[in-house]
Amino acid sequence: xxxxxxxxxxxxxxTTLAALxxxxxxxxxxxxxxxxxxxxxxxxxxxxxxxxxxxPKLNGAHLEVxxxxxxxxxxxxxxxxxxxxxxTGAQVTFVPAQDPIINFLGSKIAGGQPPDVALLPQPxxxxxxxxxxxxxxxxxxxxxxxxxxYSQGWQDIGKVGGKQYGVYYxxxxxxxxxxxxxVFENAGAQEPKTWKDLLKATxxxxxxGVTPFSVAGADGWPLTDWFENVYLxxxxxxxxxxxxxxxxxxxxxxxxxxxxxxxxxWGKKDxxxxxxxxxxxxEFPQSVTQTFTGGDQPKSAMVYEGDFVQVNIGETKxxxxxxxKVFPFPAVGAGAPVVSGGDAAVILKDSKAAQALVTFLASxxxxxxxxxxxxxxxxxxxxxxxxxxNAVQQKIAKALIAxxxxxxxxxxxQAPQAFGGTPGKGEWKDLQDFLKNPxxxxxxxxxxxxxxxxxxGNGG
Amino acid sequence: xxxxxxAGAPPGPAAPRSRKSVTGTRRTVAVLFLLPALVLLxxxxxxxxxxxLVRSFSNASGDxxxxxxxxxxLFTDDGIRTALKNNVLWVVFAPTVSTAxxxxxxxxxxxxxxxxAFKLVVFMPMAISMLAAGIIFRLVYDQDPDKGVANAVWVxxxxxxxxxxxxxxxxxxxxxxxxxxxxxxxxxxxxxxxQPVALPLVGVAPDQLPDDAKKAAAARPEPGKVTGTTWQDFxxxxxxxxxxxxxxxxxxxxxxxxxxxxxxxVVASAKASGDGTFTLPAAADxxxxxxxxxxxxxxxxxxxxxGPALVTPAIIGSYVWMWAGFAMVLIAAGxxxxxxxxxxxxxxxxxTEWQVFRKVTVPLLAPVLAVVVVTLMINVLKxxxxxxxxxxxxxxxxxxxxxxxxxxxxxxxxxxxxxxxxSVFLLLLVIPVMLFNVRRLRREVxx
Lengths: 460, 447
What we know:
The complex is a heterodimer.
Chain A: H1 2-13, H2 18-21, H3 26-43, E1 62-67, H4 71-88, E2 91-96, H5 101-110, E3 117-120, H6 123-131, H7 140-149, H8 152-156, E4 159-160, E5 163-164, E6 166-173, E7 176-180, H9 181-187, H10 195-207, E8 213-214, H11 221-244, H12 253-266, H13 275-280, H14 284-289, E9 302-304, H15 309-313, E10 324-328, E11 339-347, H16 352-361, H17 364-373, H18 391-402, E12 408-409, H19 411-414, H20 417-420, H21 426-436, H22 441-457
Parallel strand pairs in A: 1-2, 1-3, 8-9, 11-12
Antiparallel strand pairs in A: 3-11, 4-5, 6-11, 7-9, 7-10
Chain B: H1 2-8, H2 11-18, H3 27-55, H4 69-76, H5 78-109, H6 115-123, H7 130-140, H8 149-161, E1 178-181, E2 184-187, E3 197-201, E4 226-232, E5 257-262, E6 265-271, E7 277-280, E8 288-291, H9 311-336, H10 340-348, H11 353-381, H12 385-390, H13 396-399, H14 402-412, H15 416-446
C-alpha cells in the first residue's frame, strides 16, 4: 500500500511524462492523457493528474458502497476505494452485504438508508433494482468512460430498457478447470480439449491413485456453473438463452443430455473427493485448498470454477502457473463454452460523488489497481494485460477480452433470485439433490422445472 | 425463585388496604409514571406484533390484502413442513435432555469436593454467544477426521476394531483380465498350472502401498503349481507403461490375498510376497482367481454428522452443550433450598441413594425443573443461529426450523408476507408456554 502511494506521488510530480513512464500502461494512458489535459484545464484539480480519468474534488463528501465480497476480495477492493479517496478527498465506507444482495438492499432502502453505490452480481438484480425505482441512471461522464473502455456486449448487459445503469467493474471467467500440475505429470495426463479427453485424463488420474475431482457441493452455485458450461457447449447458445429465460422447460431433452453428461463425472463415487456425500459437505474454499495441498497426494487433482479460484489457491503454498495450472472448460459439443459472470456497480443514491465513483470504477485506473493484486478480472479492455500478476491470469484475461461479445452470462444469475440465487432453494438445491443421486436425471429435471415454474411465475 | 417469594411475602397481606393511597397516588399520576414504560413497550413490542399480524395478511409488496393465502402457504410449503417437524424434535428433546443433564450435574456436584470448579466448567459455554458456539461445532462435526473432533474420536474407536486395508481404491485398468465382483475382483478366465497369471490393478496411491512392497517381478512358471503376480500396473509420469506386464519401476502388491475359486468354493489361497508374486498349490488348477473384497475395504470415513439424517440431532447436541450448564445452575439453586432433614429422614428410614433421589429430591425439585424446562422450551422455539451456522448449505433444508425458515422466506426469497405469517404462528406457539410460566410465577408469589 505504502509503496503504491509513493508511485502515485511520483506521477503527480512528472505529469507530462506520465504516459511515457507508465510503460506497459502506454496504450490506455495515451488515450486518456488527452482528456486529462482538457479536464485539468476545466477543473484545475491537481488530484486527477497522472491518471486517465478526470475526477472532481469531493472534499467532505461521504459515500457508502455495498458489495458481498469478503476476505481478500474485500481487502483488495478497499484498496481501490482508498485510491478514490486519495484522488477526490471523499470518504468511502465499504458496507459488507450478504447474499442475496438485492434483498439486503431492499431492507436498507425500506429503512431510508440505501448505500450510494452497490455492486450487483446479477443482471436480474439490476433489472429488479430498476423496476423498483432504486437504481439511478449513469451520468454523461460515466457513460463516456464506459464507452471508451468496454466492448458492446459488456455495456449492453448493464442496460435496462435502453438506459445504462450498471458498470461491470468485475468479471469472472467461469469456464476454467484448475489442476494440480504435479498430479497430472505423475499420471501422464494431458490438458484436455474435449469432454472425451477430459474423461480420459480423469481416468488416468484415477488410475494413478489420486481422486480426480473436488466438487464444492455444500455451496449450490458451483454446481449450477458446472451445468451451465456443459449445457452451453452441448446445446448451443440459442438454447442456452431460451433456458435462461425459461422459454424452454427444464424437462427439455437437451437438459436431460446435459445432466446425463454431467453424471459421467458426478455419478462416479471414486471420481469425487469424499464421494458424493463428502462433496455435499465440501465448501468452495475447501474444494480448492484440498486440490493444491498434500504434495504428491492431494485429496483431488482438479477443481472446476472461475478465475477467482486463484484467491483460494493463494491460501495454499501452491504457485499459480507452476503448481496450479488451468485449462479452459473442454468442449462438450461443437465449441468450448465461455460462461462469464460479473459484478456491476449501480448508483442507488444519485450525487456528484456517487457518479464520480462509478466513473472511477469504469476506468482502467481502478481496475488496474485490483488486477495487480490478483484474483480479479476486469472486462475493461483498456486494462493492460501486463497488470495481471502472472501468466495464468494474463491468459484468462486475454481469453475473456478476446471473446468480445461471444460470451454468455451465468444462467443462474439471470434467473429470478428464488430459483438461481438462494442457498438451499431452487436450482442450487435441485442440483445438490442431483449430485446426491446422479442416477435420477428425470427426477432432477422434474424438480428443476417445478421450482423454475414457481420462481419465474411470480417474478421472484 | 426463593428470593422472589421471600420479597413478595411481607407486603402481601397489607396490599388490599394500601392499594389506593399508601402514598396518596392518584390515577393520573400513576399513568404519568407508567407512560414511559408504556410508550417503550408499545413501540418496541406491541406495534411490531400488530404490524406483523397485518403484514401476514398482505402480499409480498405489502399493499394488497390476500386473506389467509400466506397461512395456506405456511401449511403446504415443503420447507415449512420440515421446519415444523424439526421444531417438534427440538422442543421435545433439547429442553428435556438439557434439564436431565443439568439435574444430574447439580445433584452430583453437591457431593464432590471440587463441585464449584466443576459447575464453573459446565457453565462456561453459556459465556459465549450462540454464533461462536455454532462455529465451534461446525468444526467439531467436520467430516474430515483430521479436523473434526467428533469424527476423529469415532474413527479412532472404529479403527481399533476394524482396520482398513492396504489397497482401498485399487481397480482394474484398461483391458484388464479382471472383473469386479462383490467388492473384490475375479479373473475372467480359469487359470492353469504352469502358466503364470498376471493380476494387474491400478489406482493405489503410492504412499499408501505397504512398506514391504518391492519392485514387481514376473512370476516364473512352476510345474504343478499356479503362479502369478499382482502389482500396480502404473508407472509414475508415464501412465500404464506396458499393459499387463510389470514395468521396471512398477511395484508389487505385497500382502494381497488371492483365493482360487471353483464353483463358488475357495479351494486354495495365498498371500502375495513383496514383489507381488504368489504361488498356489495344484488344487487351484482350472479355478478362477479372486482378489477378495477384504483387500479393498475403504478406510472408514466416520459418521456423516452434518448429512441430512443426523444434522438435527447433531445441532441439538451442541445446544445441550451450551444450555445444560444453565439448567444445572438453576437446579443447584433449587437444591440448596431443599430441606436437608427430609433427605436425612429418608436415609435413616433405610432408603437407598437412588430412592432418595427418585422419591425425595426430584419431587421436591419439581417446581424448579418445570421452570427450567419451560424457559428452555421458549428458548428452543426461537432457535436460529445454531442451525444457520452449523448446517452446511446442502443440508440446511433438512435442518430447517421455523425461525430459520422465517429468515429465509423474509430475507432470501423476498416473501415478507409468508415470513410474517410464520412469525405470528411462532408467537401462537409460545403463548401457551408463556401463560403457563406467568401463572406458575404468580402462584409462587402468592405462596
